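tmp note - Biotin carboxyl carrier protein of methylcrotonyl-CoA carboxylase
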Amino acid sequence: MATVQASMAGNVWKVLVAEGEEVKAGQDVVILESMKMEIPIAAEEDGTVQKIHVSEGDFVNEADRLVDVE
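out:
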């Protein structure tokens, strides 16, 4: 199982996937907002979204778990 983690601290602006959805490596799964910039966070491998650990509006720290892909 691969875990998609936050690359920096910020607010979850948008969750782009749903549990059970198929994703491809490089596909954006979450967009963070930090310092008025939108930072897309992508899946690192192909798979199925098993669990989404955040909701839109949540604050996350660097390396926090966002999404599990298997």
